[in-house]
C-alpha cells in the first residue's frame, strides 16, 4: 500500500513539474491532433488544454508553416530520431507575444525547439513531443550585436561630415570597378569635383561655415546620383564620383547639371548667404590604362584645367592638350 502511495506522489510531482516548467510541452498524434498542452503553452496562447485537445494543430495555429514543420517531423516519425529547430533558421513555431521586460523591444517570442518521438509498449511511434524554448533574450542580444557591428562597419566606410563614402572606401570601390572594366571591357567615367575658393570661405566666414558648405554640396551630389553611382569625399573640399557604365558624353551631362545646380544654390549659414561654385574634371576609362591610379590622375588633371581656366566649369580629359613626349621616349 505504501508503494502505491509513493507512486501516486511521484505522478503528482511529475504532473506539477509538467505544468510549471518554463518550457512549452506539446504532444500531438500522428495526425497532428493535440493530445497534451502544458501550462507554459496555456499561458502564452491563452488556450486551455481542454480547448485544444484533439484540435488539428495547423487549424488552431495557421501561422505555422505546415509544409516546413511536416518536413521536420516526418523523419522523426519514420526514423525515430530527434529533430531540432533554431530561431536563426525560423524565429518561432508558435507566434507568441514577448512578455519579458528586458527584451521588450522584441515583437514576439523567439523560439528553439526539440522534436522527439513517443512510442507505445510495442515500440511503435504513435506521438510526437515538441519542446518549445523561449530564447528571446539570446536572440535579441545577438541581433543587437549584429546591428551594432553593421553600424560600426558602415561608419568605418563613411565620411562623418558628408555621409558619403570616405576616401579609403571609395577608392576600394574604384579598384573593383577598374578590375571589372578590364575584364569585361565596359566603359565608366570618373569625376573629380573641387569647391572653388574654399580657403576664402574658411577665412571669411570660419571653419564651421566651411563645413556647412561641404555638407550642402555633398547633399546636392547625392541628389543627382543614380543607384549605381558611387560618390565619396576624396579630400578636404574635394569629391569624387564614379559613374558606372557611363560614357563621357553622359558623364558630361551629369557634371554640367551638378555644376549649374551648385552655382544657383547658395548656402545659408547663420543668416549669411554664401555663394559657391565647383570645378569638375571628367575622365572616361580607356582600355590601355594600367591601373586605377592612372584613371584618377587623368580626372585630376582635367579638374586642374577647369580651375586654371577660370573655375566653375567642366573639363573633359579627352579634350586636354596632348602632353609633350620626353626625349628618348617613343
Radius of gyration: 34 Å
Oligomer state equals single chain
The domain count comes to 2
Distance between the amino and carboxyl termini: 113 Å
Mean pLDDT: 88
Strand count, sense and barrel status of the largest sheet are:
5 strands, antiparallel
Low-confidence stretches: 1-6, 324-330
InterPro entries: Diguanylate_Cyclase, GGDEF_dom, Nucleotide_cyclase, PAS, PAS-like_dom_sf, PAS_4, Rev_trsase/Diguanyl_cyclase
Catalytic activity: 2 GTP = 3',3'-c-di-GMP + 2 diphosphate
Protein name: diguanylate cyclase
Organism: Alkalimonas mucilaginosa
Describe this structure in words.
With 330 residues, the chain is of the alpha+beta class. The protein folds into 2 domains: 2-143, PAS domain (Beta-Lactamase), CATH 3.30.450; 158-319, Alpha-Beta Plaits (2-Layer Sandwich). The protein has 11 helices and 12 strands. It has helices at 2-20, 39-45, 49-52, 57-60, 66-79, 136-157, 167-184, 198-205, 207-224, 248-263, 292-308; strands at residues 24-29, 34-37, 83-85, 111-119, 125-134, 189-195, 230-233, 238-243, 267-269, 272-274, 278-284, 314-316. Helix 8 (198-205) crosses helix 9. It is elongated and about 95 Å long. The termini are far apart. The model is unreliable at 1-6 and 324-330 (pLDDT under 50). It comes from Alkalimonas mucilaginosa. It catalyses: 2 GTP = 3',3'-c-di-GMP + 2 diphosphate. InterPro entries: Diguanylate_Cyclase, GGDEF_dom, Nucleotide_cyclase, PAS, PAS-like_dom_sf, PAS_4, Rev_trsase/Diguanyl_cyclase. Residues 186-319 form the GGDEF domain. GO terms for molecular function: diguanylate cyclase activity.
Amino acid at each position: 500500500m505504501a508503494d502505491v502511495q509513493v507512486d501516486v506522489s511521484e505522478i503528482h510531482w511529475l504532473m506539477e513539474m509538467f505544468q510549471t516548467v518554463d518550457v512549452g510541452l506539446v504532444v500531438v498524434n500522428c495526425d497532428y491532433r493535440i493530445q497534451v498542452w502544458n501550462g507554459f503553452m496555456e499561458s502564452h496562447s491563452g488556450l486551455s488544454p481542454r480547448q485544444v485537445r484533439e484540435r488539428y494543430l495547423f487549424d488552431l495555429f495557421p501561422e505555422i508553416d505546415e509544409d516546413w514543420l511536416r518536413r521536420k517531423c516526418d523523419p522523426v516519425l519514420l526514423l525515430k530520431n530527434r529533430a531540432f529547430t533554431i530561431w536563426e533558421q525560423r524565429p518561432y513555431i508558435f507566434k507568441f507575444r514577448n512578455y519579458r521586460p528586458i527584451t521588450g523591444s522584441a515583437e514576439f517570442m523567439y523560439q528553439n525547439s526539440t522534436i522527439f518521438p513517443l512510442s507505445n509498449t510495442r515500440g511503435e511511434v504513435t506521438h510526437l513531443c515538441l519542446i518549445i524554448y523561449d530564447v528571446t533574450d539570446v536572440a535579441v542580444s545577438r541581433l543587437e550585436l549584429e546591428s551594432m557591428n553593421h553600424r560600426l562597419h558602415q561608419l568605418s566606410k563613411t565620411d562623418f561630415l558628408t555621409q558619403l563614402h570616405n576616401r579609403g572606401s571609395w577608392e576600394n570601390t574604384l579598384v573593383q570597378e577598374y578590375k571589372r572594366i578590364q575584364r569585361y571591357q565596359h566603359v565608366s567615367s570618373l569625376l573629380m569635383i573641387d569647391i572653388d575658393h574654399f580657403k576664402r570661405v574658411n577665412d571669411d566666414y570660419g571653419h564651421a561655415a566651411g563645413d556647412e558648405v561641404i555638407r550642402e554640396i555633398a547633399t546636392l551630389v547625392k541628389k543627382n546620383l543614380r543607384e549605381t553611382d558611387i560618390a565619396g569625399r576624396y579630400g578636404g573640399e574635394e569629391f569624387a564620383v564614379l559613374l558606372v557604365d557611363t560614357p563621357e558624353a553622359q558623364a558630361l551631362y551629369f557634371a554640367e547639371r551638378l555644376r549649374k545646380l551648385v552655382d544657383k544654390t547658395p548656402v545659408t549659414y547663420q543668416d549669411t548667404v554664401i555663394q559657391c561654385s565647383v570645378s569638375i574634371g571628367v575622365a572616361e576609362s580607356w582600355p590601355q590604362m594600367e591601373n586605377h591610379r592612372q584613371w584618377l590622375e587623368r580626372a585630376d588633371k582635367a579638374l586642374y584645367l577647369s580651375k586654371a581656366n577660370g573655375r566653375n566649369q567642366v573639363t573633359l580629359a579627352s579634350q586636354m592638350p596632348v602632353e609633350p613626349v620626353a626625349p628618348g621616349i617613343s
